[in-house]
Structures are given as C-alpha cells and as structure tokens.
Amino acid sequence: MKKLIDKLEKNRNLSKEELTMLVADQSAENLQYLNERAVAVRRSVFGNSVYIRGLIEFTNYCKNDCYYCGLRCSNRKADRYRLTPKQILQCCRKGHELGFRTFVLQGGEDPYWNDERLEVLIGEIKREHPDCALTLSIGERERKSYQRLYDAGADRFLLRHETANADHYGMLHPAEMSHANRLRCLKDLKEIGFQTGCGFMVGSPGQTTETLVEDLMFIREFEPAMVGIGPFIPAGNTPFSGEKTGSVELTLRLLSIIRLMNPKVLLPATTALGTAKEDGRAMGIKAGANVIMPNLSPTDVREKYRIYDNKLATGVEAAEGLKELELEMGKIGYKIEITRGDSPLCINTHKKQTN
Ligand code: SAH
To answer: How far is Cα 250 from Cα 20, in angstroms, rounded to an integer?
Structure first.
C-alpha cells in the first residue's frame, strides 16, 4: 500500500483499481503514512499557513427537498430566517476586524435572493472590502445568473457535486433535481471564471467504495480550485434522520488522497468533520487540509442553520474564537494567515486580484 501512496504522490494518476484499493484500505498504519505524505505535499505548496474564511449563513429558506438536509422545504419544523443586507454587512465588518479576508455567503436556495438583490449585496460588500474575496454557496442557478453574480464582483463559488454517480445522486435527491444540471452548473461556474469548488459528503446513504472512486476521478478531471468534503451527519425531520454518521477515518483518508491528487487545491477541514469528532478539524489539517471556515453568522441564527444535528457553532468553530483557533493551530505547527488565500491554480488569471 505504501508503494501505491508513493505512486499517487509522484504521478497522481492511479488506475481505477488502484484507487479502489486505496479507498477501501482499513489499516491505521497506512492511513498515517497517507496523512504524512499529504501534509508534506501541502507544506510544499502552502508552507505552514492555514487560510480562514468567515462563513455567513445568510438564509435557511430553501426550495429544494434534498433527503439529507435539515433545511429541505418539507421540513416544517425548521425555524426559517433570512438576514437583511444590513445584518450581512455588519457580519463582514466584524469579520474584517477579526482578520478575515474572505467571506462566504452560504444559504438554501432561497428565491427571495434573486439576481438583482444579490448584485446589490455583492456590490456593497466588495465596495466596503475591496481587499477581500467573496465566495458564494447558494446552489444551482442559470448560467446567466452566475455570470451576473460574477460580474457584480463575486470571486469564488462552492457547489458540491454531492456524488459523481447519477444513480447515487437519485438516492439523495427528489426526482425534480438532476445530476446533469448539477454538473452543468459546475461547468458553467468554472468557464465563467469563478474559483470553483465541488465536493461530497462521506458516508451518505447509498455511497460505496465504487461511488467514492468515481468522486475522486471526477475531481481529478474537473480540476476544481476547492474541494469540500465532510462526514454525512443525520439531520432530524429528514428521510435520513435514522442513518449513521459517516466515518471520520474515511474522511481523513479521502482528504489526503485529494491533496496528493491535486496538490494546489484549497481543502477545508469542515465543520462537519469537527462536529463528528472532537478535534476533527485539527485532524483534518493533519491529513492535508489547509482551510478553516469559522462561523461568522449572527449568534442568534446559528442554531437555526441546521443542515444536520448538533452542528458546532461555538468555541473554535465561531469567528469570535479565532484566538483560540490560532492557539490550537499553533500547537500543531500551523499559522493562520490574514490574506484572501486565493487558489494558486487561479492566481494569475483572476480578474480582480488586489493583493
Ligand atoms: N444550498 C447550497 C448550500 C448547501 S449546504 C448548495 O446547494 O450548494 C452545503 C453542503 O452541506 C451541501 O452541499 C452538503 O454536501 C452538506 N450537507 C447537507 N446536509 C448535510 C448533512 N446532513 N450532513 C453533512 N453534510 C451535509
């Protein structure tokens, strides 16, 4: 297995069979070796810096009905909220003072936030913080809508593909949602010029070693600037509320494989990883991740943005806990950077690089 890991590090191009062996492997010793190699590669690209993003969960209204997500429209128990532009700008101001230079606007697919409203908001954020990058994570839209948001100043877009396998996609989503459209969105985002992120949950119902290998091959081919992965965690009042939480070990294994396959990728140690296991985010960094996204939403809504249960939003998960996070990262040899932290894959081509 070590030979396979070395081969992945050297030429990144393992066959389907080889990737399958690597994903299905269960040995703790091999996992440790994989994590070590991923950290070495991550260091060669990013040194010991960790990039931070201030996550603003700006609406939990959603028109979709994804089986795994607590924000799904059929969940009548969800306590819905929508931040005002003024509140969002306030979050950015506070984030900027704390040292954030990237803001991530994430939400359900909320029709209230049409192109006009988003354009105004994006314009205001970028005018007030020209030194900051703005990331959107607001789901599927038409190409011309993505183009308008890009032209308004948004820099990056996160849209997890959720699974590269169309049948598996059908097990996670209602019939109105299509795998083909998800992939169309990702392609459009990248073509328009966004630093684009895809990703998936680890341990989602119906996932197999085979579908995971397809995910890895999809990532290799798509060459995203960012990849978000974290364990699936059951959410109350959803069809999957009784399912098992995804494996932390497998998530760490996949983080390392993704780092070795795509050395320059921006790879967050996600909140889901920190929720599934205490210390999970530090473990993610030690598996090759290089980004952390603390929560910058107003404290009274954090509880309501419940994509899954028991989601962490305090302590080092909270933007206010940055000092604590710095200490935690310092202990394992990393340093939080006050920078936009753009993708090294996009750095020369980007439209509005200001630093
Ligand atoms: N509406 C946006 C943002 C969705 S929330 C969009 O469609 O992109 C961001 C991510 O959280 C999702 O893409 C999904 O992969 C993840 N997520 C949703 N429910 C989850 C759960 N129960 N456990 C773990 N991750 C979940």
So the answer is: 13
Q: Are 290 and 43 in contact (CB under 8 A)?
A: no
Ligand 1 centroid from CA 44, angstroms: 31
Sign of the Cα torsion 165, 168, 173, 177 reads: positive
Distance 307 CA to ligand 1 centre (A): 6
Residue having the nearest C-alpha atom to atom 13 of ligand 1: 160
What per-residue confidence (pLDDT) applies to 13? 86
Ligand 1 centroid–CA 141 distance in Å is: 16
User: What is the helix, strand, coil percentage profile of the chain, to 5?
Assistant: 45, 15, 40
Q: With 50 as the cut, is the pLDDT of residue 353 above it?
A: no
What residue ranges line ligand 1, CB within 6 angstroms?
68-69, 106, 108-109, 137-139, 159-160, 162, 201, 230, 232-233, 235, 272, 307-308
Kindly report, residue by residue over 302-316, the tens digit of the pLDDT: 999 999 999 887 777
pLDDT confidence tier of residue 350, bands split at 50, 70 and 90 = low
Q: What is each CA distance from 80 to 77, 88, 103, 303, in whole angstroms?
A: 9, 16, 22, 11
CB 338 within 8 A of CB 292: no
What is the structure's pLDDT at 295?
A: 96
Residue 351 predicted with pLDDT over 70: no
- Residue 243: phi, psi to the nearest 5? -80, 165
Closest-CA residue, ligand 1 atom 7, reads 139
User: With contact defined as beta carbons under 8 Å apart, do 295 and 304 qualify?
Assistant: no
